[in-house]
Amino acid sequence: MTDSVTRAGIAVDAELARFIENEVLSVLGRDVASFWEGLAALLAEFAPRNRALLATREDLQAKIDNWHKDRRGQRIDQGEYQTFLREIGYLVPEPGEFTIGTQNVDPEIATMAGPQLVVPILNARFLLNAANARWGSLYDAFYGTDALDAPPAKPGGYDKDRGDAVIARGREFLDQAVPLKNGSWADLELADVVANGIAISDERQYLGATEKGRLFKNNGLHIEVVFDPESSIGSEDKAGISDINVEAALTTICDCEDSVAAVDAEDKLLAYTNWLGLIRGDLEESFDKGTTRVTRKLEGDKVYTAPDGSSASLSGRSLLFVRNVGHLMTNPAIWLADGHEIPEGIMDAVFTSAIGALDVEGHAQYGNSRCGSIYIVKPKMHGPEECAFTNDLFDAVEDLLGLRRHTIKVGVMDEERRTSANLGACIHAVRDRIVFINTGFLDRTGDEIHTSMQAGPMVRKAQMKSSEWLAAYEKRNVAIGLRHGLSGRAQIGKGMWPAPDLMGQMMAEKIGHLKAGANTAWVPSPTAATLHALHYHQCNVFAEQSGLTEVPPLEDLLTIPLAKGTNWSDDELREELDNNAQGLLGYVVRWIDQGVGCSKVPDINDVGLMEDRATLRISSQHMANWLLHGVVTEEQVMDSLRRMAAKVDQQNAGDPFYEPLLENEDGPAFRAACDLVFKGVDQPSGYTEPLLHRWRQVKKAS
Q1: Is the model's pLDDT at 336 over the cut of 80?
Q2: Any catalytic annotation for residue 643?
Q3: Judging by DSSP bridges, how do beta strands 241-247 and 434-439 pair with one another?
Q4: In this structure, is the dihedral angle defined by the CA atoms of residues 275, 278, 281 and 283, taken in order, positive or negative?
């Protein structure tokens, strides 16, 4: 820490202390000295507990490793395996019947179903784009993507043929979501609208008139049909319709974790400053768009006049969660009296909640939660003991800040094997504040590999998607959530669609998340949110959930995806290594050299994928597993890393800030990639953060 001040016996980065004292505590009217004394007491209790939980992880992993080593080459007997896991405390008794008791949950989470964005908190422009993605233009989304089954737009300005196809598709959507009493929206004419209004089949769907449109509702989501005959589009439309705006990203997760590279006080201060700007409502970002200087800020509410003449409004912004980091990492922004760095997850809990209290206590321009809640997503918790720790920590933070009990709500990321296997008990541990569970293929597969690292070589990464454990994991998450009353009170979420340029494929496939019972699912962009919103008009998720309560057996979840008796060819081995190495290097080089934690990274086939840190965990752990069991050699891995470094260099040739990997094999980025693989077996839970943070700090210091 370059410049610190002492507060209640702890050393705090001076700028961070100034920020929390002047920008947050003074506005809240909290006594500064009491805050720091309370924080010091909180840390004295919870930092040792945090370290003890991490020691438990290591102890359990060592016992599991030894169990597999003793039985290497033998068939795993599920009865014996589960008995062992219970004896060591990895599996715990299931709680009895219970229903979550969470109160004061906003409808965007509890009773509405729609898309969810995840956005890096260090990028103000992305944050504003995501927060403003509550409403999206359907015309723009179809015109600019392959979601429309029509020839692409011809270059050179507006393509009327493409535009006509967009308009026709928009009318199809309206016919499905808000059918007219007679005929089709395609037949509607402006004169008839002016004279007689719009006669829809179900008059309850009509909510009122906006400044230039008509507002409707279907499956809990809102649709604004914009009538503007003076506009370029509306003037050519016989009904005068210029656009269709759909309610899209109901919720957004502002991410302090896997999509950012935050390794020190400077980075954390930027994260908290951006979160403050969002909560306060005054975050702005200016940038050049072509030859024009553009300033982006938060959208206001959408006001409308109801049929009875009263005025009402809908939020113009996505409801915001903040994702804190997990229990593993510490951060040099604050040093404790015992000489340890502060556990970063505890620091996030205190500081993001303090900022969230500004919303709860009426110091925000727009307001985030209309129910007086602060929404925090907590990732990478291993089992119910760690969930209980988070619940106790949030209790203590509420006491520190003078907030009523359970103001702070929690979203539990079901992305670790011990959490999946004990999900009911995890939910029970946070039963009065839980608002969210979800699944994620990449992190969960990374932990699947690491937990059973010593059991044998794993199947190829692509085969994981059809493995028995993964199917059970996805179904159990939904069924257990429904069994304990999450429907109508909390979100059950599914993972990211990673390819922002493949919207046609997303529209064909992602409705499967709704059919599986998810009332929210992650998308990579505001445009994707607009398109994915159409799925929620097609499918009533809450009706689907009623038939999804059967929980697959634990045995299916605990079936390890081992490649039994498989002999891969040299070409297959090279193909698998290259796929892992290219994805690893393509992400690492931006993380280490540029501090970019989330971006569209070309895959080995040059398809742009929206990647975050989870892609490193699965790729590095898979390569480490094959190395450990002699499937591949160190020489083969290095050969793949060097060849894929050349490919990644070529893919980034147009980036003026890019530093080539092949010219810098001794540099932090390439060395970090090597460490992630060759030291992968020894990394705690297979996490990438310790190595990434160390090499990023080296890069920043240079």
Answers
A1: yes
A2: no
A3: unpaired
A4: positive
501: alpha, beta or left, given left = phi > 0 and alpha = psi -120 to 50? alpha
Smallest CA-to-CA distance from 228 within 220, 216, 239 is with 239
Specify binding-site residues for Mg(2+).
415, 443
- If you search the block for the tokens 């080995």, which residue do you land on? 604
Residue 697: its pLDDT value, please? 97
Phi first, then psi, for residue 235 (nearest 5°) are -70, -20
Check 134, 323, 431, 489 and give the catalytic one.
323
Residue 587 and residue 604 in contact, taking contact as beta carbons nearer than 8 Å: no
> Residue 257 pLDDT > 90, yes or no?
yes
Query: Which amino acid is residue 82, in one-letter code?
Result: Q
Angle in degrees, CA 267, 48, 19, rounded to 5: 30
570-701 has which fold?
Malate Synthase G; Chain: A; Domain 4 (1.20.1220)
Closest by CA to 450, choosing from 68, 52, 53, 55, is 68
Q: What are the tens digits of pLDDT across the range 340-397? A: 999 999 999 999 999 999 999 999 999 999 999 999 999 999 999 999 999 999 999 9
pLDDT of residue 1: 57
Are β-strands 330-335 and 341-343 bridged in parallel, bridged antiparallel, or unpaired? antiparallel
342 close to 333: Cβ distance less than 8 angstroms? yes
Mean pLDDT of the chain: 97
Q: Give the count of alpha carbons within 13 A of 395, CB side only.
A: 11
| pLDDT for 420 | 98
CB 184 within 8 A of CB 156: no
Q: Is the alpha carbon torsion for 577, 579, 580, 585 positive or negative?
A: positive
Strands (E), 184-340: 206-209, 213-218, 221-227, 241-247, 251-255, 284-289, 292-297, 302-305, 311-314, 319-323, 330-335
CA distance 77 to 60: 19
Contact 618, 442 (CB under 8 A): yes
Domain chopping of the chain, boundaries? 137-247, 570-701
CATH of 137-247, one of 3.90.25.10, 2.40.30.160, 2.60.40.420, 2.170.170.11: 2.170.170.11
Task: Please name which of 671, 633, 621, 640 lies closest in space to residue 577, comparing C-alpha atoms.
Answer: 640
How does 295-316 read in b/e, with b if 16+ C-beta sit within 10 Å?
ebebbeebebeeeeeeeeebbb
To the query of whether residue 612 is one of the catalytic residues in this protein, the response is yes
Percentage, residues of the chain above pLDDT 70: 100
C-alpha atoms less than 13 angstroms from C-alpha of 50 in its C-beta half-sphere:
23
The binding site comprises 118, 125-126, 259, 296, 323, 415, 440-443, 524
Binding site for glyoxylate, residues? 323, 415, 440-443
Which tens digits make up the pLDDT trace of 40-60?
Answer: 999 999 999 999 999 999 999
> Which pair of structure tokens corresponds to residue 693?
């943070």
- Condensed to tens digits (0 to 9), the pLDDT of residues 585-635 reads 999 999 999 999 998 999 999 999 999 999 999 999 999 999 999 999 999
Closest by Cα among 120, 147, 134 to 610: 120
What's the CA angle centered on 268, arms 262 and 269, to 5 degrees?
Answer: 145
635-636-641-643 Cα dihedral, nearest 10 degrees: 110
List, for residues 630-667, the tens digit of each pLDDT value: 999 999 999 999 999 999 999 999 999 999 999 899 99
pLDDT, tens only, 443-493: 999 999 999 999 999 999 999 999 999 999 999 999 999 999 999 999 999
Q: First vs last Cα of the chain: how many Å apart? A: 16
Catalytic site residue from 255, 359, 612, 649: 612
List binding-site positions for acetyl-CoA: 118, 125-126, 259, 296, 524
Mean pLDDT of 129-156: 96
